[in-house]
Each structure stands twice: as C-alpha cells, then as structure tokens.
Amino acid sequence: MIQSVPLFINGEFRQSVSKQWIHVTNPASNEIIANLPCATEAEVTEAVASASQAFLQWKEVAVSERARLMLRYQQLLKEHHDELATLVSQETGKIFADAKGDVWRGIEVVEQAANIASQMMGEMVENVAESLDTYSVTQPLGVCCGITPFNFPAMIPLWVFPIAIACGNTFVLKPSEQAPLTSVRLAELFEQAGVPKGVLQIVHGKKEQVDYLLSHPDTRTVSFVGSVPVARYIYQTGTHNLKRVQAFAGAKNHMVIMPDANREQVINNLVGSSVGAAGQRCMAISVAVFVGRDKSWIADLKKVMAKVKPGVWNDASAGFGPLISPLAKDRVLHLIQQGKDQGAVCELDGSQCGVEGYPKGNWVGPTLFSGVTTEMSVYQQEIFGPVLICLEVDSLEEAIALVNANPYGNGTSIFTASGAVARKYQHEIEVGQVGINVPIPVPLPFFSFTGWKGSFHGDLHAYGKQAVRFYTETKTVTARWFDDDISTGPNLTIQLK
C-alpha cells in the first residue's frame, strides 16, 4: 500500500484534508512510493499559529537546556544514520555512499547547534561613562520557516531548523515535494529527542503553500535553497513582506587547473566532483578551465570518466544514481543537444544511457564537452546533471577574469603546486567559497556557507556564526546604578559584651 505523507502540526503527525495531492516517485524506476498532500491554507495557518504559541514558552527555556536537546537529537541521528541514508536513497536515487554523506553533514550542523550558548554570548563595556555600563544580549525572533530542495533532503533541513530552534525560535519547514519522506523522519526523531510540542512544524506542498508562508504576518525569517528563478522570487516576495530572507540559488562552479598540478589528483577530483550525485548539487564542479591548452588532459579525463557508470542506490559498483525526475532528465538532455548543436565537441555522450532492470529510470551517463566557449548554453546555464565542460586559456590572469565574469559565485577551486599562484587566485577571485587542491570546498559548520553574487540573495548565510545572527536580534542595554542607592540594611553582626 502506498503511504500518505503526514503533516506535523502542533506536535501531531496527521493526515491532511487537502484535495490536492502529488505523487512521490522513486527516480530509478518512476514507481510511486508515496502520496503527498498540498496543505490547505487553514493547515498552514494552524501550523504558524501553533509555532507562534509555542514560541512564548520556548524562548524562555534556558539556553543550556536547548543545547541538551540538540545533544540528544544528534545522538539519535547517529543511531539512525544508515536508516536515514536508506530513506534518502530511495526518494532521491542517490547511491548509498552519497546518501550517508548527506546525513552526516547534517549531523555536523546539529552538533554545532549543541554549542549554541557560546555563539549567543553578548558583549559588555563597563563604565562607558561615569557609573554607566552598556551591554548587548542576543534574543530569538519568533517563527522562522525553511523551504528546502530535493537534492539534500537530510542535510539542508538540518542546516536550518536545528540552529533556529537552538537560538530560541520555533520553525515551520516546507520540504521539497519531490523528497519529503526524510524530513518527516527527521521530525519523528526530533520529537523522540524531546522537542516540546509546537516548536517544529512540517507542511507540504508547492508554490501556493510557500506563498502562504511568505505572506503570513507571523513568520519572521525565510531560508531557501533551490533554483535561480525561485530564489529570486523568494527573496523579492519575502523582503516585500518584510521578512528576513536568505535564498541560496544556482551556480556554475569552475575548477582551474594549472600545468604544474598533479594530473592524477586533478582527474580523479574532476570526475568525482562533476558527476557525483549525478551532478545535482549546487557545489558540483561543472566547468574545467585548463591553463596552458594541453589537450592531453582532456584525453586522460575522458578515459577515467568513461569508467563511471550510474546505477541504483544499493549497487556498490555504481558511481552515481538517476536524476530526480523525467523533467530534470529532459532538461539535461536538451542542454547536451544544444552543446552539440552550438559547436562544442562531445567527447563523451551519456544521453543514451540506461541501467539494466530499470528501463524507466531517469538515467544520464557521464558527459564531457571540450571546445566550449562562454557564449554556449552549456556554459551559461546550470545544467544540474553529470555533465562537465572544458575551456582552455593561456594564463592564470585569463582564468581569473573568466571566473569573475560569470554571474554566479558559489564555489571554485584551483589545483596547483605553487603557493604563490594559489594565494593570487584566492585573493582575486570573486567567489564565496574557494578550494585549493580541494574540489568542493563546502565548509564545516563552525564556518558559514558563503555563496556570492547570483548564487545567493540576502545578507547572512547558512550555519556557523552568520546563521546565529540571521536567527536572532541584538538588544543593547545601557544601565546606570547610583552608589547612593545602596542600602546598608540592618546590622546583623554578633555584638560582644
């Protein structure tokens, strides 16, 4: 029997009364695995009202107790790690190794949330004037909400709600309608960890439900990860409604390869970072920029890339899984064809890929283009598939100019044996996250995820110190106490006779 995905409202997992439902499918077979409701306006309103009510009590809970909740939660997540990874694999198609990484990176953020007390400390200056002290305190905002994508159904929800809740807020989560099951299980474990009723809510749906959250007068913040046009819409609509918004958008991430780089390391890292997770990650390397125009790099790259095959989640020989949907597959195939039509050299073509036993899966094999120019669609658009394009330039300066001219700024990397080259690149490049001999420089959660330019709309980024600032407000207090007000009180000293 196909399950119906529940809502989580006011501490209760319940079935929606909605008349609008969506099929959740297994991307490897396109078989229906669940039915998902598009929550009614009344259900979303109830979720926000419940979170608003819960906030009145939750904000008064001691910060140390909020931290202990996160400690209990991270322990449960660790105990259920493989179970969660299996769920991620089944609803996204990710191979098991990728799914385990998805879960683990989320657990790392929860561990950071358990350190919330030190991150919420204020500041004080004594005697800013005579008998006058000034100090600041950090306080939660209220109801926060998150709209999360399909490609990391464990990690990205865990980027947002644990930090927000540890700061003293309550939270309404709207997970991707394509991969909602992991979020429901995360909520079940959070309830088991002891989160009070109403502190976390989950509603499901599409644009209509998102608009309810963006326009509701009681929601204070919106955290979003997704495509470029939707990120822009979320930011513009949310800020128009006076919300605090962080909207993470698409990317076109470049790896610059210097002639002195270790060839084996470069090729292995290029293959893994471009086709891993079927290229469905905003930090994937999708552009290789070879400095020096040595064609032998591309020939060697093709040999290694051709050995990587897609497959189902529990196939130990598979390098990656399917794309999330037939629509996503059609879009990638369309861009591959455009690359061919516009004159790029298709060195390796994965457009006719299939996997035995799964003829209806959303399969695209590793695809490699050379001879690409910046005017081509395969360069200008985020493909979000297992496609790597190669460009060639004459100098480091030309490579830096190429990357800086791109409208996105999520991540980049450079592979070189020269410290001076690496220093110049990291200093001059206009990208938020830079890897030096590291292909995908996603920072650990005591830093923040810092995309730039068209890859991010907002002022404060996800997790780390910036997330704490995003989910809190600073109150500054100036106080004066007078010595004359000190009462001597009764004399309680034992009198000697």
From TrEMBL:
<dbReference type="GO" id="GO:0006210">
    <property type="term" value="P:thymine catabolic process"/>
</dbReference>
<dbReference type="GO" id="GO:0004491">
    <property type="term" value="F:methylmalonate-semialdehyde dehydrogenase (acylating, NAD) activity"/>
</dbReference>
<dbReference type="InterPro" id="IPR016160">
    <property type="entry name" value="Ald_DH_CS_CYS"/>
</dbReference>
<comment type="similarity">
    <text>Belongs to the aldehyde dehydrogenase family.</text>
</comment>
<feature type="domain" description="Aldehyde dehydrogenase">
    <location>
        <begin position="15"/>
        <end position="477"/>
    </location>
</feature>
<dbReference type="InterPro" id="IPR010061">
    <property type="entry name" value="MeMal-semiAld_DH"/>
</dbReference>
<dbReference type="GO" id="GO:0006574">
    <property type="term" value="P:L-valine catabolic process"/>
</dbReference>
<dbReference type="InterPro" id="IPR015590">
    <property type="entry name" value="Aldehyde_DH_dom"/>
</dbReference>
<keyword id="KW-0560">Oxidoreductase</keyword>
<dbReference type="InterPro" id="IPR016161">
    <property type="entry name" value="Ald_DH/histidinol_DH"/>
</dbReference>
<dbReference type="Pfam" id="PF00171">
    <property type="entry name" value="Aldedh"/>
</dbReference>
<protein>
    <recommendedName>
        <fullName>methylmalonate-semialdehyde dehydrogenase (CoA acylating)</fullName>
        <ecNumber>1.2.1.27</ecNumber>
    </recommendedName>
</protein>
<dbReference type="InterPro" id="IPR016162">
    <property type="entry name" value="Ald_DH_N"/>
</dbReference>
<keyword id="KW-0520">NAD</keyword>
<dbReference type="InterPro" id="IPR016163">
    <property type="entry name" value="Ald_DH_C"/>
</dbReference>
